[in-house]
Design a protein that fits this description.
Elements (H helix, E strand, L loop, with lengths): L1 H12 L1 H9 L6 E2 H8 L3 H13 L3 E6 L2 E6 L2 H10 L5 H8 L5 H5 L1 E3 L2 E3 H13 L3 E3 L4 E3 L1 H9 L4 H5 L7 E4 L6 E4 H13 L3 E3 L6 E3 L1 H11 L4
Antiparallel strand pairs: 1-3, 2-3, 4-5, 6-7, 8-9, 10-11
Helix pairs in contact: 2-3, 3-4
Amino acid sequence: MEKEIGYITSLIGDPVRTNILWTLLDNKAYTATELAISADTSPQNISMHLNKLVKADLLVVESQGRHKYYRFSKPEVAYAIEAIGNLLPTEKHKKIVTNIDNSSIKYCRTCYDHLAGRIGVLITEALLKQKIIVENTNTYSLTKKGNIFFSELDVNIDDLKKHRRIFAKPCLDWSERKHHLAGSLGAALLDKMLLLDYIRRTKKSRAIVITSKGQKHLYEKFKVSV
């Protein structure tokens, strides 16, 4: 087991591959050319790194016309990459999160396919406080009240539970160092908030903007003031 873990950590630890994996945390698929630009390396070099990540089953590649697109092979890869941010020493972590250039990312962002940052953590804490979800060992369960809550948002819980992934789980937020909601339920909540225009994505960033409509909703539903 230690040999296999060593192999994975050596793959992730390479600076170019770290950049690739961090870029893919926005849950978009990228071409090799786009990832080469992001990692500031040559097309030949990025191809070698991408092949290693695909071979290790960290990424998958899909062809569409003349282009090939790369993305995470499964959500667990994204969770692992995000969690590594929590291993930063306290002083380095403090320097990063207090940097004004990182303020929007720290405040509200996507973590692969669910909401993270301060707002993601506050929403999760509100769901727990209102007993919409309850915490078990490394998972969250939906209560009867929770079923009603998500039904009112038109989220089909039965369909979500059929997915081949964890239904609801805590994900340790690297900037807040507290948990936010992940799993298929967290992904569905993010999708619904985007659809209802409570929040909006920003170009070339994982930062999320909260609309005036969203501000009202967050206070009414979660007592979260933004």
